Amino acid sequence: MLSSLLINNACTRKEIEFGTIPENNYSQLVYIDSVGIQQSTVITDSFETGGATTLLMGRYKDPFLGIISARSFFQMDKPSTFQYIESGAIYDSLVLIIKPNEYHYGDTNKIQTVYVHELAQSIVLGYASKLYNTGSTNLKPVPLGTRTIRIRPVLDDSIMIRLDDNKGRELFGKLQAQSSVVTRSQDFLNYFYGISLSTGETDTTAIIGLQTGSSLWMRLYYHTNTPFDVNSVVDFPMLANTLTYNQILANRTGTGIIPTNPGVSELPASKTGGYSFTQLGTGMASKISFPGLRGILLNNQFLKLIKAELILRPAALSFDREKYKLPDRIELLSTDATNINQGSITDSTGNHVLYATPVIDEIYGKNNYYRFDLSSYINHLLSTPGSEDFALYIQPTFAAVSPNVNRIILGSNSHDGFISQLRLSVLTVNK
To answer: What tens digit of pLDDT does each residue of 201-259 get?
Structure first.
């Protein structure tokens, strides 16, 4: 049951409108922290990830959310400058060079096997000419290259993965023959459709972020030995464009988080273990509302809302400093019974989006929270007819072109000591 504050309305006072401040002898400041918060999780089964400026690859096993996996798809381009390769030159190797961008989620202390697959077809736009997290592009069955490695996202500058020599020699022959495949971009794209990066199906370590554009390329090594040894390279850069996308999937088997509808589902916290979840990388957002608020404030005793603070407390043991880090910054978005995102909540000026950063209890680990000043929003809610369905989404700063799998898990009223609160300071009538 959601808690609410019951107010005795059998008081008498002068006729004073709500929102005005009378003489001091008629009012007093009262603090309320028992406004009921209703929590749910809204799940969207697909969302756009095309035009990505961050690539994701990997898998990790979340104790609350199941197995989360990510795979990236992108195109490569012909060499930016063509160089003549003499007939006596000798092919050495072909490698893919990738660079971590420091983003990671999960346990990076374990090894992973990185798989490089060549695409078996061109990347094709989907519904509404977009690319989605649930999308996929057919792959050639045999990997173009693999490497088993422990990736250190912050320390590793770059990672080299040896690719199949048959493909390397094939490319080398086209370079020597000055084929249009290596001199014209469209011909190259018709010959080499692109690459997908992923990790092993049994890896449950971490999801890693990779840089795009000029920070990712295939490099072909060769040498000549007449009149003396000279080592040379030819680089095939990544083609950063709208056809770059990430596939991000969640296997929620055994979690109890079961969408009820295709498209968008809303699950009350009572159906998901008393929790609500935000992980925008898998299409989940915590939704909160205050169904008893109007009944508390719009009665004969309260006069004016002075301040409203929202305190969001992550559930016990739902995060740590290494594997399951809290987002560095979160925001609130307005919604209602339609579950349509209606934009960010702003401050009283309407010019600045409200953000909050986590406060971490380093000593006892219990008093962890995000804090928002919602005074302007709550006053707007109280003065707007038909606002009973108003609600808020909780989300980290997020962009489809730079996705992540950061998450926040909030406990409902059944989780003592870790309950989120709406704290109100109001003026009341003296009895």
So the answer is: 999 999 999 999 999 999 999 999 888 889 999 999 999 999 999 999 999 999 999 98
CA pair distance 180, 174, nearest whole angstrom? 8
| Alpha-carbon distances of 385 from 343, 380, 389, rounded to whole Å | 19, 10, 11
pTM of the model: 0.88
Question: Is the bond leading into 227 cis (omega within 30 degrees of zero)?
Answer: yes
- Does residue 32 sit in helix, strand or coil? strand
The structure tokens listed for 272 are: 């998901």
Amino acid at 261: N
Which one-letter DSSP state was computed for residue 103? Answer: E
Tell whether the torsion through CA atoms of 177, 179, 181 and 184 is positive or negative. positive
Q: What is the DSSP letter of 91?
A: E
Ordered by start, the domain boundaries in the chain are 24-45+262-429, 54-250
DSSP string, 168-211: HHHHHHHHHTT-GGGT-HHHHHHH---EEEEE-TT--SEEEEEE
Count of positions (residues) in the chain: 431
CA-CA distance, 301 to 206, in Å (whole number)?
54
Q: Which residue has the tokens 């004073």?
A: 16
For residue range 153-202, list pLDDT tens digits in order. Answer: 988 999 999 999 999 999 999 999 999 999 999 999 999 999 999 999 99
